[in-house]
Amino acid sequence: MAHYLIFLGSTRTTTPPSPARLGERVAKACERLLSSLPHTTAEIIDPLALSLQAPFKPHFAYAQADAPDDLAELADKIAAADGYVMVSPEYNHSMSPALSHLLNHFGASLFAFKPSAIVTYSMGQWGGVRAAVAMRAFLSELGCLPVSAMIHIPRAQEALNLDGHFGQEQERWESYFGRTFGQLMWWAEAASNYKSQIDPTKVSPAFKTAPSQRNAPGSESS
After folding, report:
1. For this UniProt entry, which residues form the secretion signal (predicted)?
2. How is the beta sheet containing 40-45 ordered, strand by strand?
3. Using one digit for the tens of pLDDT, what is the confidence trace for 22-47?
4. Which residue spans within 125-189 are E strands per DSSP?
5. Does an H or E element contain 146, and which?
6. Helix or strand or coil: residue 137?
């Protein structure tokens, strides 16, 4: 059984714009479609359900026993998941601050050697496509390489109902989502199978001590 986490990149609940929290519809559609596939489960990760600390303190900055329960639980879910779906609107041609804030609470080693899928949306005609371009670099650095196919939903308020079902052209929309999710599942299964043969953490150990571990030889200041 493969399990996928769907990260909802929205915390805004007020209007305007209207309808508020449009991304919730998108996340529900992703959850419904993934969960309908054989041997597959999916779960929405909603930042509003987490008590993220202020000022910012990531999960990996706590001593193991001291991390807040919700962060510790989510860290375990991230480590156990087979892949990820990242749902984001577009802010200044980039991903939503709600999504980057949530993901930045966790180290790349939890996401590493697994695939992700990019899903963007907007109330206008572009469907958040410019945010998706920026998300590729972010997710690659996080270690969950995004598959080539992406999902962009223009006028999401018309395309999706409150429950995450398509208002029209359901077959075409499901086929469109299916291409991306098919790639996600293929890579997730390939990664899982190969991990049973070769431990990726031995091929490329995680950097967990200090940022300087990433430095090239000779780059340290004298």
Report:
1. none
2. 40-45, 2-8, 83-88, 116-121, 151-153
3. 999 999 999 999 999 999 999 999 99
4. 151-153
5. none
6. helix
Tokens matching residue 151: 């999902």
pTM of the predicted protein model: 0.92
Residue 166 sits at the vertex; the CA angle it makes with 176 and 45, to the nearest 5 degrees, is: 80
DSSP SS3 for 88 = strand
Please name every residue paired with 121 in a beta bridge, in sequence order, or none if there are none: 153
What is the token pair recorded at 46? 């909603």
Strands 116-121 and 83-88 come out as parallel
Is residue 23 within 8 Å of 9, Cβ to Cβ? yes
Alpha-carbon span 85 to 41, nearest angstrom? 12
Residues of the chain with pLDDT under 70: 209, 211, 219-222
Spell out the residues 6+ positions from residue 202 whose beta carbon is closer than 8 angstroms to its own. none
Task: List the one residue out of 92, 1, 87, 84 whose CA is nearest residue 40.
Answer: 1
Helices and strands: H and E segment counts in the chain: 8, 5
Place of tokens 């086929």: 175
Q: Distance between CA 112 and CA 4 in Å, rounded?
A: 14
Q: Which residue has the tokens 């695939």?
A: 115
β-pairing verdict for 116-121 and 40-45: unpaired
At 25, the amino acid letter reads R
Q: Quick one: 2-214 is in which CATH superfamily?
A: Flavodoxin domain (3.40.50.360)
Sequence letter at residue 87: V
